[in-house]
Amino acid sequence: MASSSTTSLSLRFIAPQTHLPSKPKRSVLVAAQTAAPAESAASASVDADRLEPRVELRDGFFILKEKFRKGINPQEKVKIEKEPMKLFMENGIEELAKKSMEEIDGEKSSKEDIDVRLKWLGLFHRRKHHYGKFMMRLKLPNGVTTSAQTRYLASVIRKYGEDGCADVTTRQNWQIRGVVLPDVPEILKGLASVGLTSLQSGMDNVRNPVGNPIAGIDPDEIVDTRPYTNLLSQFITANSRGNPDFTNLPRKWNVCVVGTHDLYEHPHINDLAYMPANKDGRFGFNLLVGGFFSPKRCEEAIPLDAWVPADEVLPLCKAVLEAYRDLGTRGNRQKTRMMWLIDELGVEGFRAEVEKRLPNGKLERGSSEDLVKKQWERRDYFGVHPQKQEGLSYVGLHVPVGRLQADDMDELARLADTYGSGELRLTVEQNIIIPNVDTSKTEALLQEPFLKNRFSPEPSILMKGLVACTGNQFCGQAIIETKLRALKVTEEVERLVAVPKPVRMHWTGCPNTCGQVQVADIGFMGCLTRGDNGKPVEGADVYVGGRIGSDSHLGEIYKKGVRVTDLVPLVAEILVKEFGAVPREREENED
Questions:
Q1: Which of 209, 246, 417, 505 is the most exposed place for a label (fewest CB within 10 A)?
Q2: In a domain, 187, yes or no
């Protein structure tokens, strides 16, 4: 397959009606840079040989050149031995699904298929805790889904009993659990029938494009992010057919399009973030690059000192991905995210590589007319809120730590059909929004029994900001159980202290930090620590001080190796010292 045609990538968008230019301030989220920086020492010293692409197109797929294979990591060797995308694009999944697990484990290649290569199809084998069962991750650009899609996913997980459930992820996405290999071909067909795909959602691929969860209905939005995130997803996956131009990246890659002053999209933790900005009377985006989390290093995205008009979002994305694919290192997996390449080339060196891969070979410098207001109080989307469309409202519902069962999903689909337009929105905080509710029906919706129990539009002040990764119930990499423990600890803490304002608490089961603990006010990263008898017990490293928004900041370690049994009093103490909480006993006495 030849590389995608650049002539088809430039699309015309209508600029937003509201233009809110503001002067840039010193912040990691100010993408503008009014003057070209001096060439960095790093980029100036890069040898010309270093800029030779490390991959080449062979038989329709990009593969690492022989000369660059010394010292590569095991995952790269798996990709070289057999192209993962052939399981989908050449229908290899049909034959694999017919084999028993015993047959598969008896052969090195097929064992690597189910443990590694199937991740290109969004399938993750849970070998450690749920042998023979898979988690399936979808692509859901901007977190927008339909009642029909939700019902279909519910029908899939229902047949798997206790193992069957779904999670809302921290990238506005669905993950479903309990899937068995023989069912996969039919599930893939079922997904396609309702307009869904799981393709290219794991391993060294572009993850779900994130946007404003209330895009198109938000009275205060800067721009509707849905057209951009949809186009990005369609481009990346070649309209769900598979796009081998971008399936052999050095590591995973995250992208978001910002459309709101609230920065619901968390641009500072994405490899590429489009930040709305005007330039010379044109609407477009300043660019942030390189944000990521890993066990050994976490970095916030930095300005590329570049601006693109709205109709060049796709060519820019293509150029950035090609630069990363061609030049990124493939050794130690802890040093293969895109920021490591930016460090090596320097920002200007990386920018030059992106620029020369653009159709016209030119990349404009960043604009000083950022449209994101720096002084903006982040809005709460829970409960009932008026839309920009007169007579309609959206209703935000709390999904405790993002976990749903089949019956829950069916009920959400029913509510979306009965009160809204059959649409649901997923958020990066693992919650759900029902849009397009006739305002005259909101009271009836609020009286639904479903909203009176777990899925409240008015969660408690600490529950509303609670996020948790999968934990060791289903994930083999997680060191501790997270979801149930996060709920239990929060409930106990709420009995001890009264908090005057929302505090975001995130849980992650291991240093891979899928729960994004570094952006939380208080974060808990699973670890092993010592019990009273000196033996290992479940614990957590506690982080404090993460911020989101225009003054974003990654949290720092507050205390390491805290036993999970000791977390409740510590969290209560942190809330009193750092967040103005009042002990319940004192509050009651004052009353």
A1: 417
A2: yes
Identify the pLDDT of residue 498. Answer: 94
Query: Using CB atoms within 10 A of its CB, is residue 447 exposed (0-12), middle (13-18) or buried (19+)?
Result: exposed
514 as an active site residue: the answer is yes
Whether 128 and 248 share a structural domain: yes
Based on the fold, state whether residues 213 and 345 are members of the same structural domain. yes
Q: Annotated catalytic residue: which of 139, 251, 318, 464? A: 251
Which residue among the candidates 79, 117, 133, 137 is catalytic per the annotation? 137
Identify whether 252 is a catalytic site residue: yes
Which spans in 283-432 are helix H? Answer: 313-327, 338-345, 347-356, 406-419
- Would the pLDDT of 237 be above 90? yes
Asked if residues 64 and 80 have their Cβ atoms less than 8 Å apart, the reply is: yes
Q: Is 71 a catalytic residue?
A: no
Q: Of 356, 383, 418, at which residue does a domain stop? A: 356
Report how many domains make up the chain: 2
Provide the CATH number for the domain around residue 298: 3.30.413.10
Tell me, yes or no, if 126 is annotated catalytic: no
Active-site option among 514, 523, 526, 555 = 514
C-alpha 503: how far from chain center: 21
Helix axes 406-419, 147-158, angle to 10 degrees: 160
Which one from 259, 291, 471, 515 is the annotated catalytic residue?
A: 515
The pTM for the full model equals 0.89
- Long-range pairs of 66-74 with CB within 8 A, sequence gap ≥ 24: 68/330, 71/331, 72/330, 72/331, 73/330, 73/331, 73/332, 73/333, 73/336
Number of other residues whose CB lies within 10 A of the CB of residue 239: 11
Which residue among 252, 279, 325, 483 is the active-site one? 252
> Which residues sit opposite 58 in a β-bridge?
61
Which two three-digit tokens encode residue 98? Answer: 């017919």
DSSP state of 253: B
Nearest alpha-carbon partner for 242 in 493, 61, 504, 457: 61
Of 308, 337, 356, the domain-final residue:
356
Q: Is 361 a catalytic residue?
A: no
Specify the DSSP class assigned to residue 129.
T
- Examine the pLDDT at 186 and tell me if it is beyond 60: yes
Residues contacting 182, CB < 8 A, separation 6+: 97, 98
* pLDDT at 178 (0 to 100): 97
Catalytic residue list contains 526: no
Q: What angle do CA 461, 464, 468 make, to 5 degrees?
A: 130
Among 92, 178, 396, 509, the one annotated catalytic: 509
